[in-house]
Amino acid sequence: MRPAVLSILSFLPLFAAAEVSVAALKNIRSNAIPHSYLVEFDKANAMGGKRSVSPHEEFYKHMDKHGAAYTVRQEYNEHDLYVGTAITVSSEKELVALSKAPGIKAITPITTHPRLHPVSKHIVTGPEDPVVPKDVLSTHVMTGVDKLHEQGKLGEGIIVGIIDTGVDYTHPALGGGYGAGYKIAMGYDFVGDSYNGTNTPMPDDDPLDQCAGHGTHVAGIIGANPDNGFNISGVAPKATLAAYRGFGCTGSIGDDIIIKALLRAYHDGCHVITLSLGGAGAWTESASAIVASRLTRKGKIVTIAAGNDGQDGAWYTSSPGSGMDVIAVGSVDNTIFPSQNATVSTGFGPITYYSALPLNITEPLPIYATSTDTSVADDACSPLPEDTPDLSGYLVIFRRGACNFTQKLANIAAKGGKRSLVYNNLPGLQVVQLGNYTTALISEEDGAYLVNQFKAGHNVTVSFPQSSASYGLPNPVGGLISDFSTYGPNNDLYFKPAIAAPGGNILSTWPVPLGGYAVLSGTSMATPYVAGSAALLLQTLGNTEDTARRARSIFETTAVAVRSNITEDSPVQTLAVQGAGLINVYNAVYYDTVVTPGEILLNDTATFDGKHTIHIKNNGKKVQTYTLSHVPAGTAITMNGIMPVPGPLPLTKQYATIGLSQTTVTVPPGMTGIVTAKFQPPAGVDPKTFPVYSGQIRISTVAGMSLSVSYMGVAADMGDMQIFDDSTTFLNATLPVIVNRAGIPQLGEATYTFEGYDVPSIVYRLAAGTPVVRFDLVDADCKIPDYGGAARKRSGGGLFKRLRWLFAQVNKTHDEDDSSFDDIPVIGTILEIDYASRNGPPVAPSLNASDTSSFTGLSWHGDFVNGDTVENGSYRILGRALRIGGDPTREDNYEAWLSPVIIVNKSS
Ligand SMILES: *[C@@H]1O[C@H](CO)[C@@H](O)[C@H](O)[C@H]1NC(C)=O
Ligand SMILES: *[C@@H]1O[C@H](CO)[C@@H](O)[C@H](O)[C@H]1NC(C)=O
Ligand SMILES: *[C@@H]1O[C@H](CO)[C@@H](O)[C@H](O)[C@H]1NC(C)=O
Ligand SMILES: *[C@@H]1O[C@H](CO)[C@@H](O)[C@H](O)[C@H]1NC(C)=O
Ligand SMILES: *[C@@H]1O[C@H](CO)[C@@H](O)[C@H](O)[C@H]1NC(C)=O
Ligand SMILES: *[C@@H]1O[C@H](CO)[C@@H](O)[C@H](O)[C@H]1NC(C)=O
Ligand SMILES: *[C@@H]1O[C@H](CO)[C@@H](O)[C@H](O)[C@H]1NC(C)=O
Ligand SMILES: *[C@@H]1O[C@H](CO)[C@@H](O)[C@H](O)[C@H]1NC(C)=O
C-alpha cells in the first residue's frame, strides 16, 4: 500500500515549547519561521521563454486558483542564482496547492540564523589616545598585510558587501557619511530596528546601525581609515563598502533575508561579500548556503564565519558557512592584548593594565589595599570592615578570586570606592569582564608590589597617563587558534573552515553613541579580516572572476598552519579547526608559484579515495626546484559513544602516511610539475571515536617560499555514526520519547483527547546530523524490521547523494524505482526535516535554560503535513533518520524508532 499522496510533501516547523505547559519541554529548539517557505522556481520556468507573465505571477495565479491563503515575504529574481519567492501560508493545508504548482525546483522551510555573539566584548569609552604604538597593528603583522600597506595596496577599486546589523557610517573612521563618494557608498536596510528574525521586516534605504554595533565592528576591520585616534587600520582602508542590514537591534535573521541580501549585493556589483553570522547547520545544503555557494561560481568571493561553538566539539559547523564553495573562516588569537601603562610615584613599573584605552582617571591617586595579604583567596568578597575609610579619593587595590568581580566591586563601592585595580591570581593577564566600572586587571607581581607598599605605610600614588601609554601586551596564546572557534568538517566531509584569521581580541570601530571603539572576539571578527584580504588580492592580482574563483585555493595554499599549543612538542593543530592555517596575504599575493588543489577531501573509510594529483605551476622567470614533505596535524578524537567530545579536542600523534611520487620537482618557468600522492589513513585509531586526521603536503624552495596542500579525512565510516540518542539522559526514559501534557514519559499505551494540551509530544536528540529525519503515524500493529548491526549499514551506492527530498517527491513517484523506503504503510507524516544538524551537547533541562539546542521537541496536535487530520483509532509514531551518506530510498539505510501505542480519542 502506498502512503497517502503528498504525505511527505512538506515540513512542519517545530511548534513546541510555548504551547506545552511543561517545564521540561522549554528546552526545545525552534529555528523555523512558522508556516513560512522558500519556493525556488526551476530554471526552465524561471527563464520565462516566450511567456509574457513572470514565473512569480504564474505561481501566485496557481495558488489563487486553488484558493490558497498566503502572503508574500520576499521575491527573488536573479537569473542563474535564485528565482523564487518566500511565502507564509495561513496553514500547512495550503502546501497541497503549493506542491502542485508547476515549475517548482525546491520548497524549503525558512529557518533563522542567530547573530554570532562576540565571545568577549570590551567597549572602549575613554578619550582617544593620540599616540598609539604600531603594536595595535599586530594583526596585520601576523598576516603580512602590513607589508602590502607599505606598498600602498589598500583595496582601492574593490567593493566589499557586508551582510550584518548595518553600519554606523557617521563614525569618522568609517568616512562620516553615506552614499556615493563615501567609504560606505551603498547598501540597504532589509529589516528595520524592530525585526527579530521572525516578525515582519520594515525595510528602508538607510542601513544605519546605532543600536547593535556588530556590523560597525566588522566594517572597521575591513576598512577603517588609519587616521583615527588609535592608529588602527582596516585591512583594505581604500575599499568601497556596501552595508546590507539584515538584523534588527536584537534577534536573528531569516534565510529569506540572507538570500535577498546576497542577491542584492551581487546585483550592486560587490566583488567580495562577507557574512559574520550563522547557526548550527553542518551540511552544504541549507538554502542560503546553496545561494552563497552559487555566488562564488559567478565570480564573487564569499567569506562566512565558521562559528563560535568550539567548546561544543566537532560535527557542528555553522550554516551558511557550510556552503560548498564559500570561504569559511576560523579565528586565531591576536598576538597582543591591547593594554595601557600606569605609572607609580616610586618609579616602579610602569604597571601594564588590560584596557584598550586609558582609565578615565586624570589625577594621581593614593592607593588603598582591601587586604595586606597578597595571597588572600577571597579578597573583598564580603562587605569591607566597619573601620574602612571613605574610599572615594583612593585607587583601591584588590585581588582576583573566589567570587566574581561584580560582588567585589559592589563591596568596594559600598565604601565609596569608585576607581580600582584588580591584581591577578593567575600568571599573566587574561581578558576579564569588569562591566562599566573604572577598573582594570593588572599582574600578580604588580599587585603584590602595590599591596606591600601600602602595608609598609609608604605614600604611593598611581597615575594614568591619558596619552602615549598604549602598550601591546604579548598574549601567551596569541597566534594559536581561539578556543571558541568552531570545529569542522561538515557532516558531508567538506573542509570547513577553509582558513583562519585574527579574531581574538580585536580593536575596531563601534557605533558612536555606544562608545566609538570596542575590543571584540569571535569568528565574526576573523571573517571580515579575510574579506578585506580578498580585496587586496583582487586589487593586486586583477579584479576578475577568475581571480575570485581561485581565491580560496590561493589563500589555502599560502596560509601558515599553527600549532595546537605553545609548547614545542605540541602537534600541529587539527585542520578541522584551523583549515589550512593562518592567512598570509602577502604570500597569497606575491608567490609566483601556484599550487592546486588547495584542499584534498579524503572522506571516510567507506568513500576513501587515497590517490590524488598535485599541480605545481611555476609562474616565475627562473627554473624552480621544489621540495615536498608531509607535515601531519594532530588527529582529533571527536566522539565518545553518542556524545561529542567537547573542545578543545584531544589530539593524538597517530598520523596518516603519504607516499609521494617525487620529493623534489624542478619546474621551468611557465611549466607545471605534477606529483601524485597516495594516502593511507592512520593505523591504530579507534573508529568508534570518529578520528579526524589531517595535515599538509608542504612544497618549499630554498629561497624560502612555502606552499601547502591540505588534506582531511575520517578514519571511520560516517554511516556508523549513531543518529538518534537512545540513552536515558532526559526524563529518565529511553529517547526518543513521547511525553504527555504533564511532561511524563509515555511508557505503555496511552490515550489522548487532542483537546487543548492533551496531545502527545515527541522529544528526541540527534547525536549526529542526518540528511532526513522524519516522523510518521503508522498502524498500532505496524512492524519494522530490526536493522541493527551490520544490516543497517548504508548501501554501497548513493554516497553523499544530494537530496532535494521534496523536489524528488513532487517530480517522481517511488513506483518507478526499487525504493524500499515506502514499504511500510504510513497513515500520515507528522514532521520531516532535511539536512538536520545534530543537537547541541545535552544539558539538563530547566525552567531557565538558555541553551535551547540540546533537544528537539514537537507537540503533535493531530495534523499531518498535508493538512489532513487524524481520525480516532490506535496508532504508533515511527521515527526514521537517514544515516550520513545513506541512500534515502532504502529503508535499511535509516535508523528507526517505534513509539508505544497512541490512542486518539477525540470527542467530536
Ligand atoms: C571622565 O570622568 C569625568 C569625571 O568623573 C567625567 O566628567 C567624564 O565625562 C569622564 N569621561 C569619559 C569619556 O567618560
Ligand atoms: C519577534 O517579535 C514578535 C512580535 O514583536 C514576537 O511575537 C516574537 O515572539 C519575537 N520573536 C523572537 C524570536 O523574539
Ligand atoms: C556575582 O555573584 C553574585 C553572588 O554569587 C551573583 O548574585 C551575581 O549574579 C554574580 N554576577 C555575575 C555577573 O556573575
Ligand atoms: C553601569 O552599570 C550600572 C549597573 O549595572 C548601570 O546602572 C549604569 O547605567 C551603567 N552605566 C553605563 C554608562 O552603562
Ligand atoms: C603623599 O604624597 C602626596 C603627593 O605626592 C602629598 O600630596 C601628600 O601630602 C603626601 N602625604 C603624606 C602623608 O606624606
Ligand atoms: C609599558 O610597560 C611595559 C612593562 O610592563 C614596558 O615594557 C613598556 O615599554 C611600557 N610601554 C609604554 C608605552 O610605556
Ligand atoms: C597547553 O599547554 C599548557 C602547558 O603545557 C597546558 O596547561 C594547557 O592545558 C594546554 N592547552 C591545551 C588547549 O591543550
Ligand atoms: C568525497 O566527498 C566529496 C564531498 O562529499 C564528494 O564530492 C566526493 O565525490 C567524495 N569522494 C568519494 C571518493 O566518494
UniProtKB/TrEMBL annotation:
<feature type="active site" description="Charge relay system">
    <location>
        <position position="164"/>
    </location>
</feature>
<dbReference type="InterPro" id="IPR010435">
    <property type="entry name" value="C5a/SBT2-like_Fn3"/>
</dbReference>
<dbReference type="InterPro" id="IPR022398">
    <property type="entry name" value="Peptidase_S8_His-AS"/>
</dbReference>
<feature type="domain" description="C5a peptidase/Subtilisin-like protease SBT2-like Fn3-like">
    <location>
        <begin position="602"/>
        <end position="712"/>
    </location>
</feature>
<dbReference type="GO" id="GO:0006508">
    <property type="term" value="P:proteolysis"/>
</dbReference>
<dbReference type="InterPro" id="IPR023827">
    <property type="entry name" value="Peptidase_S8_Asp-AS"/>
</dbReference>
<keyword id="KW-0378">Hydrolase</keyword>
<dbReference type="Pfam" id="PF02225">
    <property type="entry name" value="PA"/>
</dbReference>
<dbReference type="InterPro" id="IPR036852">
    <property type="entry name" value="Peptidase_S8/S53_dom_sf"/>
</dbReference>
<dbReference type="GO" id="GO:0004252">
    <property type="term" value="F:serine-type endopeptidase activity"/>
</dbReference>
<dbReference type="GO" id="GO:0016020">
    <property type="term" value="C:membrane"/>
</dbReference>
<dbReference type="InterPro" id="IPR000209">
    <property type="entry name" value="Peptidase_S8/S53_dom"/>
</dbReference>
<protein>
    <recommendedName>
        <fullName>Peptidase S8/S53 domain-containing protein</fullName>
    </recommendedName>
</protein>
<dbReference type="InterPro" id="IPR015500">
    <property type="entry name" value="Peptidase_S8_subtilisin-rel"/>
</dbReference>
<dbReference type="Pfam" id="PF06280">
    <property type="entry name" value="fn3_5"/>
</dbReference>
<dbReference type="InterPro" id="IPR034187">
    <property type="entry name" value="Peptidases_S8_5"/>
</dbReference>
<feature type="domain" description="PA">
    <location>
        <begin position="377"/>
        <end position="440"/>
    </location>
</feature>
<keyword id="KW-0720">Serine protease</keyword>
<comment type="similarity">
    <text>Belongs to the peptidase S8 family.</text>
</comment>
<keyword id="KW-0964">Secreted</keyword>
<dbReference type="GO" id="GO:0005615">
    <property type="term" value="C:extracellular space"/>
</dbReference>
<dbReference type="InterPro" id="IPR023828">
    <property type="entry name" value="Peptidase_S8_Ser-AS"/>
</dbReference>
<feature type="signal peptide">
    <location>
        <begin position="1"/>
        <end position="18"/>
    </location>
</feature>
<keyword id="KW-0645">Protease</keyword>
<keyword id="KW-0732">Signal</keyword>
<dbReference type="Pfam" id="PF00082">
    <property type="entry name" value="Peptidase_S8"/>
</dbReference>
<feature type="domain" description="Peptidase S8/S53">
    <location>
        <begin position="155"/>
        <end position="567"/>
    </location>
</feature>
<feature type="active site" description="Charge relay system">
    <location>
        <position position="524"/>
    </location>
</feature>
<keyword id="KW-0134">Cell wall</keyword>
<dbReference type="InterPro" id="IPR050131">
    <property type="entry name" value="Peptidase_S8_subtilisin-like"/>
</dbReference>
<dbReference type="InterPro" id="IPR003137">
    <property type="entry name" value="PA_domain"/>
</dbReference>
<feature type="active site" description="Charge relay system">
    <location>
        <position position="214"/>
    </location>
</feature>
